[in-house]
Amino acid sequence: MLFLxxxxxxxxxxxxxxxxxxxxxxxxxxxxxxxxxxxxGRVQIRRREGQLFVLQPATQGRSPLDVPGVxxxxxxxxxxxxxxxxxxxAGDHQGGxxxxxxxxxxxxxxxxxxxxxxxxxxxxxxxxxxxVADGMTPADIVDTLQDLQVEDIEQAxxxxxxxxx
Length: 165
Prior knowledge:
Structural class: alpha+beta
Helix content: 25-40%
Oligomer: single chain
Strand content: 5-15%
Number of domains: 2
Shape: elongated
CATH architecture of the largest domain: Orthogonal Bundle
CATH class of the largest domain: Mainly Alpha
Order of helices and strands: EEHHEEHEEHHH
Number of helices: 6
């Protein structure tokens, strides 16, 4: 879990009801404050000179490839389509090797922001891959997402693997 550490907090006087820790106390109890921030959403720390900071869990971007401040102007579906086309073209130059087809993976710019999804359902491939990475078995995933089939999970994993080759 990532934490956004010590951001200056601009509040009106009396604008918060959170417990405020001193800087010294925060240094001594950092692990406990991180746990509390995880539970409550944020923790406040006041320095001796009165400056107030907030410690809160950072939200992660939708993709590990997202770069703050950089916009490629592409939707997720656009980049997947570009990647497929590049692979298809590269396959044509490598002795006619066929690109892998994924009949259970769909992209629609009007659904889920164009993210690759399973069979047109609102279940992104990334969600399924995350569930596997978290240690869930295919049976656990199918129990949780009852619209899925084991074959969907297998193809989502192959799709993810193919997308990073």
